[in-house]
Amino acid sequence: MATDAADQTSTISGVHHAAFRCRDADQTIWFYRDVLGLADPTGIVVEERPGSGASDPYLHVFFRMGNGEYIAFFDAPSSAEGDWFLPKDGFDMHFAFEVASEEELEAMKVRLQDSGFPVGGPLDHGFVRSIYTYDPNGIQIELTRRVDSHDEILAHEQSSFEETLATWRKRTRSQKLEKFGAEALTYPGGDG
C-alpha cells in the first residue's frame, strides 16, 4: 500500500543499536576495536533475559560509531549454541558499515587482510562499492562507500518502486506460496 510522502512521518530518528550474539566478548572487542577501528566499547552485565525474568546472565557490549549509533553484542554463554557461530549466509545476516571514500575502503581491505581475514571485493553495486568478510561470530561484515550519484540512483529507483515490487510479487508469489504457504504470507491489507 503506497502512502504520500507528506504522510510518511515517523518518530524513529535513527538506529540506536543493532545487536547480535557473540561467542566471546574479548574476541569480539579485538575484531571491532583493534581490526575495524571502532571506539573503545562500553557494556553492562545483566542477570536476566529481558522481558522474561529468566536467569540468563550476559554482558551487553556496545561500540559507538562516528554518527552516534552503536553496534552491540550479547556475550551470553549459558544460552549459546556452538553452531550459531558458523558463517551465516549474507542474505540471512550481515552488517554494513559505511566508510567515506575509496581510499578508506581500500585501507580497510588491507587492514582486514593483514589481520588474517579473507576479503571479497570491492564489488560495484551501482549505488555503493563494498568489500566483504566475516567477523569471529560468523556474521558477514560489509564495508561500503556511497558513489557520488548514490542519492540520485536511489531516488530514481524509489520513483518506480511500486512497479518493481508488483513485478517481483508476480514473479515470486507462486514460489513463496509453495514454500511457505498462504497463512505465513498473510498480513493486514495483504492478499495472503
TrEMBL record:
Coiled coil: none annotated. Residues 14-146 form the VOC domain. It comes from the Bacteria. It holds the Pfam family Glyoxalase. This is VOC domain-containing protein. It comes from Pacificimonas flava.
